[in-house]
Structure formats: structure tokens, C-alpha cells
């Protein structure tokens, strides 16, 4: 009976050693890559390495959880002989990492409890957990679960959800203004907002200069051009400077022009 | 008063009646860069062309209702280039399903004495504005992105103020009368510019 157990223990220790050796090799190569080839390293290959490590840790866990594996907790390791002398066998076994089995290495290698700092932190955490009480703890657990599931849902769901959200965001920052469109089209179409006789606004300084010319103009324009409108009155003084003079000329020949306007040569 | 029908045009001129298909929209100043990027990608590969034009609109008022409108345009960036005179007819109210505004269009290049000539003919300048912007081409389609500015002192094109905080975007094609294949192409091009700009058929008379 005991022999079987011993054999089992030996076999499981052997497999554990081999698994851990694989893990060690993977870590070794990863660290080498990180230290020496970091310029050429791409994120996907780093992820691959992490995935490899995680897979190996998983197998170790599975091995330990296997029902055939005896519980290692019940085994005790007692150092029988500590000597400050270099032990060649040990050095070979451990690949030169542990050359001497002395009282310095024993606390590190044969440790069963976690480090003092880690122990301290664990004690604090468990004290905190005990302090908040079970209902609060339960609520916190539920909130965390809800957040995680929401996030997973958002990540897993198809793109139309995301499109609706991004469309909503885009609507908050419109890139065009319909009122502006209409104003511009009206301006190009028939000069809305561009005509000279505009209500005084930022153009006030320009207007007084035109004022005297405009007041002189209307009477002439009304005679010379039939059906003159408000816009029309502005045109004479509104035109470039040289036309200010011709604007006054029609006064001499006003009867002629009046006759001409009634039979416009281009009328059909 | 519409443009004379083809039959009475001088024989030496021999112009075909051209129709202009037009879609208009606008884009806010802050979105201009993204629109220009998109247009640079969508349109023909050419050096981005900017322009600065001064347009004067001349009216001839007959006794009957509608005044006759002519548009005279000159380049501010190339002062020696000939002036451009354009007549645009009333929008055709035909096919409601047609996606673009269609109107008769007559274009001629003229010498620099155009304003004086028009004044002698009896036209009077109704309004003027300055348009500055970019022009893109895609095949026969022309996209013009321009900032319209009001001229504060008549005749002085240096002293201008922008009309609005947006740029006017116009998609236009000139085709000979009779060909009606362009509106589909224009519509698909306009789709590609959404949602940055909504190019649509805007009837100017609605905003009178």
C-alpha cells in the first residue's frame, strides 16, 4: 500500500518536474527575447509567448488537481544535512543555480509560508473583507458581475449596435448647418443679403458715403428706368466709382431715355 | 425672358443648348478640412486648385415681370484671364424624380470691358460678391467648395466680410440638352459625401 503511494508520489513529482522545466524554458526564452530582440519584437509575438506560459501553467494546475496526484501538502521536507561545502551533484542537478546546500538557501527553497510582506498584505485584505460584512460584499460581487457582463455583451455584439452609438455621437457634432445652406444658396441665387440697400449692420461705415449719392440718384433713376425698385436705386451709386458720373448724365437726355425704355430693343 | 431658342442664335456662334445639373449643400468651417480630404480622395488626381473670383450680377428690367439676369465673373487671382459671362435659365420643372436642379446655361468668355458694355446695354449691377475656395473634378462632374464674402465698399474686393460661417458646396455638370444620364451619377457621388455634406436640389425661389 505504501509502496503504491510512494510510486505514485514519485511519478507525480517526476511529471511536475518536467512540466516546470518546460515552463522554465519558455520563460527563459521569453526573457531572452525581451532583453535582446526588443527592437524586432511585435506585440502579437509577445502575446504568443504569454499564451504559451499561460497554457503551461494550466497544465501544471491540471496535473496538481488530478485525483491520481497525492496531496503534496501532506508531505514534509526536512533538510537532513546542511553543509557550507560545494556539492557537485547538487550543482549539476540544479544547473549551477544551487551549488551549496547551506543554511542560506534553505529558508528560500524550502519555504512553505508566503513572504512576510505578502503575509502582511493578505492579513490586511482578509481583515478588510471581514469588516465590510457579507451583504455589502455580496452587493459588490453582483455589481462587478454586472459590469463584466455588460462589457462582454458590448464587445461580443454585432456592429449595428456600435454604428447606432457612433451615429448618435456624430449627430452631436454636425458638419453642416441647413440654415447656412439656405442662406448661401439664396445669396448665390438672387443676391439675398448682398444687395446694397441692406439694413445697417456691420456695413454702417460704408453706407453714409453712399447716402448723398443715393438721395440724388432716385429721382433720375425713376424717370430713366421704368419700374425702378428699391434695389434698383442702389445700383447706380453701388456700381464702381467711375459710374457715379454717368449716373448723373441721364439728366440731360432724360426724355430720350424715357422713350427708349418703353420700346426696349431686346424686347420680343 | 428666357434665352433665345437655338434656331435664332447666330450661325457663327453655333452653340448647343447646354443644361447645367446642380446640387448644393454647405459645410461648416470646422468640417472643411475633412471634406477637402474626402474630396481629394474621391475626385480625380490633380493638384488641388484654389480660386478667388469676383462675381457681379447684372439685371435688366423690362416692363414685364421677370428681370433678365446675367452673371459676370472675373478671377482675382489671375487678373489677366478673360471675364466669364454666364446666363442661367429658370430651373426645369419636369421630372420630379430627377435628383438635381436642371437649368439652361449659356457661358461665354469676354474681354475686360464687360462691365462697361453691360452698363451701356442697359444692365445695372444688382449685387456682387467674392467667392474663394477650392475646385475639384471627377470626370465631368465639378465640385466647387467656396466661401462667399460680401463686398463692403462697392468695387473694393479687398474689404470683404464672410457671408456665413459655412462654405458653399456645389456639384455641377454641364451637358448638352437631351442627355439625362447625369443625375444618377450625381446622386451616387452625393451619397459618398454624406454625412459630411448633404448635397440636394435646392430651389432658390423657395428662399426668396
TrEMBL record, chain A:
UniProt KW keywords: Activator, Nucleus, Transcription, Transcription regulation
Q: Does the keyword Electron transport apply?
A: no
Which purpose does this protein serve, as stated in its record? Component of the Mediator complex, a coactivator involved in the regulated transcription of nearly all RNA polymerase II-dependent genes. Mediator functions as a bridge to convey information from gene-specific regulatory proteins to the basal RNA polymerase II transcription machinery. Mediator is recruited to promoters by direct interactions with regulatory proteins and serves as a scaffold for the assembly of a functional preinitiation complex with RNA polymerase II and the general transcription factors.
Cellular component annotations (GO), alphabetically ordered: core mediator complex; mediator complex
Q: Name one GO biological process term.
A: regulation of transcription by RNA polymerase II
Relate the assembly described in the record: Component of the Mediator complex.
Compositional bias of kind Low complexity: 238-247
Q: Name one GO molecular function term.
A: transcription coregulator activity
Q: Which family does it belong to?
A: Belongs to the Mediator complex subunit 8 family.
Show the InterPro entries listed in the entry.
Mediatior_Med8_fun/met
Per the record, the coiled-coil ranges are none
Superkingdom? Eukaryota
Q: Where in the cell is it found?
A: Nucleus
Source organism per entry reads Salvelinus namaycush (Lake trout)
According to the record, the residues making up region (Disordered) are: 201-268
Quick one: signal sequence residues? none
Pfam families under this entry? Med8
**Compositionally biased, Gly residues: which spans?**
225-237
> Protein name, please?
Mediator of RNA polymerase II transcription subunit 8
The record's section on PANTHER family has: MEDIATOR OF RNA POLYMERASE II TRANSCRIPTION SUBUNIT 8
Which gene underlies this protein? Answer: med8
UniProtKB/TrEMBL annotation, chain B:
Keywords (A to Z) from UniProt = Activator, Nucleus, Transcription, Transcription regulation
UniProt main location, coarse: nucleus
Instruction: Give the location in the cell.
Output: Nucleus
Task: State the superkingdom.
Answer: Eukaryota
A GO CC annotation given for this chain: mediator complex
* BP terms from Gene Ontology: regulation of transcription by RNA polymerase II; termination of RNA polymerase II transcription
Q: Name one GO molecular function term.
A: transcription coregulator activity
Q: Which family does it belong to?
A: Belongs to the Mediator complex subunit 18 family.
- What is this protein's function per UniProt? Component of the Mediator complex, a coactivator involved in the regulated transcription of nearly all RNA polymerase II-dependent genes. Mediator functions as a bridge to convey information from gene-specific regulatory proteins to the basal RNA polymerase II transcription machinery. Mediator is recruited to promoters by direct interactions with regulatory proteins and serves as a scaffold for the assembly of a functional preinitiation complex with RNA polymerase II and the general transcription factors.
Q: Which PANTHER family match?
A: MEDIATOR OF RNA POLYMERASE II TRANSCRIPTION SUBUNIT 18 (PTHR13321:SF2), MEDIATOR OF RNA POLYMERASE II TRANSCRIPTION, SUBUNIT 18 (PTHR13321)
Assembly and interactions?
Component of the Mediator complex.
Name this polypeptide is given: Mediator of RNA polymerase II transcription subunit 18
Species this chain originates from: Salvelinus namaycush (Lake trout)
Amino acid at each position: 500500500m505504501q509502496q503504491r503511494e510512494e510510486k505514485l508520489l514519485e511519478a507525480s513529482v517526476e511529471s511536475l518536474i518536467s512540466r516546470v522545466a518546460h515552463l522554465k524554458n519558455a520563460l527563459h526564452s521569453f526573457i531572452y527575447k525581451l532583453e535582446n530582440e526588443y527592437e524586432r519584437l511585435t506585440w502579437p509575438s509577445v502575446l504568443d509567448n504569454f499564451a504559451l506560459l499561460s497554457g503551461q501553467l494550466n497544465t501544471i494546475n491540471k496535473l496538481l488537481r488530478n485525483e491520481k496526484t497525492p496531496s503534496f501538502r501532506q508531505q514534509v521536507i526536512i533538510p537532513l544535512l546542511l553543509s557550507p561545502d560545494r556539492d557537485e551533484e547538487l550543482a549539476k542537478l540544479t544547473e549551477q543555480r544551487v551549488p551549496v546546500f547551506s543554511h542560506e538557501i534553505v529558508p528560500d527553497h524550502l519555504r512553505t509560508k508566503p513572504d512576510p510582506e505578502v503575509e502582511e498584505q493578505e492579513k490586511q485584505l482578509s481583515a478588510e473583507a471581514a469588516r465590510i460584512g457579507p451583504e455589502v460584499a455580496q452587493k459588490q460581487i453582483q455589481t462587478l458581475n454586472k459590469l463584466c457582463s455588460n462589457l462582454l455583451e458590448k464587445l461580443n455584439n454585432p456592429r449595428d449596435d456600435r454604428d447606432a452609438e457612433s451615429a448618435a455621437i456624430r449627430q452631436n457634432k454636425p458638419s453642416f448647418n441647413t440654415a447656412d445652406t439656405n442662406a448661401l444658396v439664396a445669396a448665390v441665387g438672387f443676391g439675398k443679403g448682398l444687395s446694397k440697400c441692406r439694413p445697417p449692420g456691420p456695413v454702417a461705415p460704408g453706407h453714409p458715403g453712399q447716402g448723398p449719392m443715393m438721395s440724388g440718384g432716385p429721382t433720375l433713376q425713376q424717370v430713366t428706368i421704368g419700374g425702378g425698385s428699391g434695389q434698383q436705386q442702389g445700383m447706380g451709386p453701388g456700381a464702381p466709382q467711375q459710374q457715379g458720373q454717368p449716373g448723373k448724365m441721364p439728366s440731360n437726355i432724360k426724355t430720350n431715355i424715357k422713350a427708349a425704355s418703353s420700346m426696349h430693343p431686346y424686347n420680343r | 425672358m428666357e434665352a433665345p431658342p437655338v434656331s435664332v442664335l447666330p450661325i457663327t456662334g453655333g452653340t448647343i443648348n447646354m443644361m447645367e445639373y446642380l446640387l448644393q449643400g454647405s459645410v461648416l468651417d470646422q468640417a472643411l478640412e475633412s471634406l477637402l480630404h474626402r474630396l481629394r480622395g474621391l475626385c480625380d488626381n490633380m493638384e488641388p486648385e484654389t480660386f478667388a473670383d469676383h462675381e457681379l450680377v447684372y439685371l435688366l428690367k423690362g416692363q414685364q415681370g421677370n428681370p433678365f439676369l446675367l452673371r459676370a465673373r472675373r478671377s482675382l487671382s489671375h487678373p489677366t484671364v478673360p471675364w466669364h459671362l454666364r446666363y442661367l435659365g429658370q430651373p426645369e420643372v419636369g421630372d420630379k424624380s430627377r435628383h438635381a436642379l436642371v437649368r439652361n446655361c449659356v457661358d461665354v468668355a469676354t474681354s475686360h470691358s464687360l462691365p462697361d458694355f453691360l452698363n451701356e446695354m442697359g444692365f445695372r449691377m444688382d449685387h456682387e460678391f467674392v467667392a474663394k475656395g477650392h475646385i475639384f473634378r471627377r470626370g465631368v462632374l465639378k465640385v466647387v467648395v467656396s466661401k462667399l464674402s460680401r463686398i463692403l465698399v462697392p468695387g473694393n474686393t479687398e474689404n470683404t466680410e464672410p457671408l456665413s460661417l459655412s462654405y458653399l458646396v456645389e456639384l455641377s455638370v454641364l451637358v448638352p440638352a437631351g442627355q439625362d444620364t447625369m443625375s444618377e451619377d450625381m446622386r451616387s457621388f452625393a451619397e459618398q459625401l454624406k454625412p459630411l455634406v448633404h448635397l440636394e436640389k435646392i430651389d432658390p425661389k423657395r428662399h426668396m
